[in-house]
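In response to reviewer comment 3 from the previous cycle, which asked for concrete evidence that the modeling workflow produces usable outputs, we include below a single protein chain processed end to end. The sequence was submitted unchanged, and the resulting C-alpha cells are shown without manual editing.
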Amino acid sequence: MLSSGRRRLFSALLQVQKRPCQPSRDMRLVQFQTPHLEEPHLGLESGIGGGVVDLNTFDPTLPKTMMQFLEQGETSLSVARRALATQLPILPRSQVTFLAPVTRPDKVVCVGMNYADHCKEQNVRVPKEPIIFSKFSSSIVGPYDEIILPPESEEVDWEVELAVIIGKKGKHIKATDAMAHVAGFTVAHDVSARDWQMRRNGKQWLLGKTFDTFCPLGPALVTRDSIADPHNLKICCRVNGEEVQSSNTNQMVFKTEDLIAWVSQFVTLYPGDVILTGTPPGVGVFRKPPVFLKKGDEVQCEIEDIGVIINRVV
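The workflow returned the following C-alpha cells.
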C-alpha cells in the first residue's frame, strides 16, 4: 500500500503528464529499485510518466549502475536498443522507486547566468564566457526524493535546469565534436541557499549550492538521439502548483557544445559527469519581495520531452 506521501506524488505526476502513458521508442534510461530487488537495477522508462522495463532481467550481463553502463559505451547501448525493440514486461510505476539516473559522478559542473532572459531579469550583461561553479556529487538525490531545508540557511531557492550527462571521456574537446561526448539529457533542480551563495564565505557559490539533497535529478537519462533539439525545449518550474519559471532552452547563451568545449579546456570529462546548464528567470530571490522555499512546499521541475521531477521540501 502506498504511503500518503507517495499517493500525493503519483497524483501530482498524473496532473503534470502531458500525454498518455504508452511504450516509447525513445531511449529513456533509469536507475530504479523495487521491494523485491536486493540492489538497484537499470531500466527503460516506457514513456513520460510510464512504467519501467528491467534491463538487468533482460540481460543479466549488463552492469547495474548507470556509471558502469556509460563506461561500457556502445556495448551496453546495443543491449538497451535490443530491449527497446522487444515486447517486454513493464513494471507499473507505482511499484518502482526511481533513483537519480546518475549517482556519484566524478563531477557536477554548473553554469551560471546562462539564460538571456535570466540576465535581463537581473539587469546584468550577458556573459562573454561561461561562468562555471560546482556542486559536490553528494548533493544528488532522486527525482521524487525530499529536499531537506538546512538549519544553516533561511533563503533556499528553486532553479529548474537542463542537465547534460557525459557519455564519453574527453579533454580539449572541440565544439564541433562535443555532441559525440553526450550520453543524454535529464531534468535537474539546482537548489540554492542564497544567503550562503551571495553573502557568506566570501561570496563563493559552492557552499550555497551543495548542501545535501540540493541536486535532484531525473527521472530518466534521455539519450542524445531521442531529443530532436535540446536547445528548443520548454522548461518550467512550479511551486505548490503555481508556475514560477517558464522559458525555453533556446534562451541559453552558451549551448551544450560550447559548454563542453569550454569546460574540457580545464578538466577531463568522464562518463557520468553532469553539466547543469543554467536556469531561466523567475527564481525566488529576485521577486519583490523575495520568496524562499519552506517546509511542506512541493517543487515540480519540468522540461519538454524529458519529464518532470517532483520534490517535497522538509
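The two ends are 22 Å apart (CA to CA). We consider this sufficient to address the reviewer's concern, and the full set will be provided in the supplementary archive.
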